[in-house]
Amino acid sequence: MKHLILSTLLCLVLIGSSCTHKLYQSAGVNYQNYPKREFRGVWMHTVGNGVFRNQTPDEMRSYLRQQLDVYQQSGINAIIFQVRPQADAFYKSDLEPWSKYLTGKQGVAPSPEWDPLEFMVAECHKRNMELHAWLNPYRVATTRNETFSKDHIYYKHPEYFIKYGTQIYFQPGEPWSRSFICEVVKDIVTRYDVDAIHMDDYFYPYPVAGEAFPDKECFQNYGPGQGFSKDRLEDWRRNNVNLLIEQLSYAIKSVKPWVKFGISPFGIYRNKKNTPDGSGSETNGLTNYHDLYADVLLWVQKGWIDYNIPQVYWEVGHAKADYTTLVKWWAKNNENKTLYIGQDISRTTKVDDPVYDGMNQLTRKMNEVRKNDRIAGNCFWSGEMMQNNLGGILDSLSNHYHRFPAFVPVISELDDKAPSAVKKLKAIWEKEGYILQWKADNQKNQMNRQTNYCVYRFKEDEKIDLDNPSKIVSVTTENKYALPFKDGKKKYKYVVTAFDRLHNESKGVLIKVKL
């Protein structure tokens, strides 16, 4: 039988990668019911998470591996991991202390010492997932009586920090604050193979009732010199955040142009009633623009951010912030740039569908995203809720919505050049069985370097259709695939493609085998 297989004619040809490889570059486009290109992210928070404090490094690594395995099985392809919860670090840093949420006390290194961010990058890439390093830019402490480590930056430059409500923050109007935050981000991008830098909705802090934000002196120092009169305090605040985002974008791309920069802002940009031109959404709630001083659409227009994930956490039918209204508004106003939707698992699975009795809102929300060709996927809050299978979310994703693999959409503004095809594809017998094997194209250019491979399988009489994710049998970082050999009587066609670090897909190489 072995001789029969080896004598089978193996036909290798290059087959053109179909239009799918460029179809999803600016935004997600549906392919039947299961898109091959779709962002499927999850937020893994560390702030306030007491799980790690009582774990040894070995226990923590095991715990994180188990979590990643669950996400992988449910079709998640991007992990947004919180590495800087409050001016501290889940990685080895010379700029900021080890996080108290890692070891229980700020500044105390794990023992024996290890690097959670380095570990998470490696484990995510091993599973063909992206790792987005999630930072909170301004937050320093969640309580005013926080105990900082002796070498914390707060003690070195207390004049650059403010207390507001119950918390402590970097002063957003201070140029030093922007420079320091950029230095922290640049350090991460330089030393770690992260796929993206990610920030959420915490820019200027959420308003505290009856308490004015303490930046009057800072405004007097910098506002007039930047062209802002005393009646333009809000514009000056927005400009401070704009400057931070612009400088961060430059800092990231100056080090590694392939590392993405993404924001997950609060779900309402502006209310229509508060916009002179009526361009805001038909909502009635706190806003990015007026309350958090985050001009998200400007960042999109300027190209300072590479993707946008508004946190549309409300339910369909919410009186003040209807999910459907907001999803359509963001899709219309995001300049046709890369847009994902932030989904709250609790509100989605615990609230009934407004039409169908006995159903929660997951089906409706997933369908609304997938039918909109300006939206490229979802990100789920939170990882903890997903791990607990709240509302059966894991079952629904793995059995239905994420039934087949999906690749992170290409952001064409960063790179839309496909890598070279694999070389010397062949089927051989080895001690572990019948193996499909190929050689990588060793590119020195990091933008074009092959990072992983996709193996498709078709029956003898099936048309080759690389748009169909149901034909994917493996996505791997290795250059081989174990064939499921039976009796050598049935013919199949296998196609292997290569992906680069920004998920551009190469042309496919075809081989025919008998299994």
Short description:
It is built from 16 helices and 19 strands.
Topology:
Layout: H1 2-6, E1 13-15, H2 20-23, E2 39-44, H3 57-73, E3 78-84, H4 100-103, H5 116-126, E4 130-135, E5 139-141, H6 153-156, E6 161-164, E7 167-170, H7 175-191, E8 196-199, H8 216-222, H9 233-255, E9 260-263, H10 288-292, H11 296-302, E10 307-308, H12 323-333, E11 341-344, H13 345-350, H14 362-370, E12 377-381, H15 383-387, H16 393-401, E13 423-430, E14 433-439, E15 450-459, E16 472-476, E17 480-482, E18 491-500, E19 508-514
Parallel strand pairs: 2-3, 2-12, 3-4, 4-8, 8-9, 9-10, 11-12
Antiparallel strand pairs: 1-19, 5-7, 6-7, 13-14, 14-17, 15-16, 15-18, 18-19
Helix pairs in contact: 3-5, 7-9
Describe the structure.
The chain has 515 residues and is an alpha/beta fold. The protein is 28% helix and 20% strand. The strands form 4 sheets. The protein has an 8-stranded parallel beta sheet. Strands 1-19-18-15-16 form a 5-stranded antiparallel beta sheet, with no helix packed on it. Strands 5-7-6 form a 3-stranded antiparallel beta sheet, with no helix packed on it. A hairpin with a 2-residue loop joins strand 13 (423-430) and strand 14. Helix 3 (57-73) packs parallel to helix 5 and helix 7 runs parallel beside helix 9. Residues 1-31 have low confidence and may be disordered.
